[in-house]
Amino acid sequence: MTEMSDHNIITIYHLLELIKRHAVEEFWNVLADDDFTGELIPGSRRVPIDRVTREAARLPKDTAIVVYCSGTNCPDSKYAATELTLLGFRSVRVFEGGLSAWKTSGRGVETLVRPVAAVP
Question: Which residues, 6 or more positions from 93, have their beta carbon under 8 angstroms from its beta carbon?
């Protein structure tokens, strides 16, 4: 697998500018199900790392995609971006700070409630 180049890694300030300009068509929290705490950056949606390839199949290759996970020590977003790049996507960015940088900056999150299994 090829590594993501540094120009594909963005900071919170670049992310906010992209959001302001409506330059993000797809904004994904790619944390694995086991690591997902239910929190999302507003405007993003869940595409767990094991579903990235399947979700990408429905999109044109020129779709602007930003992926993120929990923070700088989480590899899921860089892995997802590499997968997307290998699939031929040309505008893929990794929000390196992820959820922790978003929250540290004082911005709010959306909270999803995990569905509870039905009791037999």
Answer: 8, 9, 10, 14, 15, 18, 64, 65, 66, 67, 81
Token output for 16? 């906010």
The parts of the chain modelled with pLDDT lower than 50 are: 1-2, 115-119
- Counts for the chain of helices (H) and strands (E), in that order: 4, 7
Q: With beta carbons less than 8 A apart as the criterion, state whether 89 and 65 touch.
A: yes
Q: How far apart are CA 93 and CA 75, in angstroms?
A: 14
Stated as kind and residue range, the H or E segment containing 12 is: helix 12-20
How many C-beta atoms surround the C-beta of residue 9 within 10 A?
A: 17
Report the distance separating Cα 61 and Cα 115, nearest Å: 32
CA distance 64 to 61: 9
Domain annotation for the chain: domains and CATH numbers: 6-111 (3.40.250.10)
Beta bridge partners of 10: 95
Q: Which two tokens stand for residue 60?
A: 């044109």
